Amino acid sequence: MQSLPSLKLPRMALEVPTPETISVAAASRSGLMPELGLVLISVCFAVAGQVTLKAAMDQFGPIGEAQVSNPLHTVVRAVQQPLLWAGLVLFGISAVFWLVVLSRVPLSIAYPMVGVSYILVVLFAKLVLHESVPALRWIGVVVVALGIAVIGASFRRV
């Protein structure tokens, strides 16, 4: 019987990754999708709150000099608006999600993503509140969207 030739394998050092390396690698593999989802949930609740508060104030009417001169009466009237309470609750829910986001995502990434709310608010102001939105404002919305896309691309580089 013939003996098998011996193979000389190069020596390799075994490097054990640190926990920080593992968490960064895991985050880049997942693309931070759960965190992005949390940002979007927070933004959606905030937008819903904004639109609801605007609807409440449309029902309430303009606050002018007469309301400012009698603030107690104005506050009592305002707190009787169910939509006002609904909007505040929606903002509260948004804040809870936002705190989770802040615990998991660098602020330099998370906060600029709130810019999505500018896009959604203009869209809902047009569709739900029937506000007039001029072309120049839509151009601004596109510029904001492009900025958010650039920031979103940086997720892969974290």
Short structural description:
The protein has 158 residues and is mainly alpha-helical. The protein has helices spanning 19-30, 33-60, 65-69, 71-79, 82-104, 107-113, 116-127, 135-153.
What this model shows, in words?
The chain is elongated. The protein has one domain (32-157). Helix 2 (33-60) packs across helix 7. It contains eight helices and no strands. With 158 residues, the chain is mainly α.
Label the structural class.
mainly alpha
Overall geometric form: elongated
Order of helices and strands: HHHHHHHH
Percent range for β-strand residues = under 5%
Distance between the termini: 58 Å
Number of strands: 0
Mean pLDDT over the residues: 82
What are the salient characteristics of this protein?
single chain; mainly alpha; 73% helix; 0% strand
Q: Any chance you could write out the topology, listing elements then pairs?
A:
Layout: H1 19-30, H2 33-60, H3 65-69, H4 71-79, H5 82-104, H6 107-113, H7 116-127, H8 135-153
Helix pairs in contact: 2-5, 2-7, 7-8
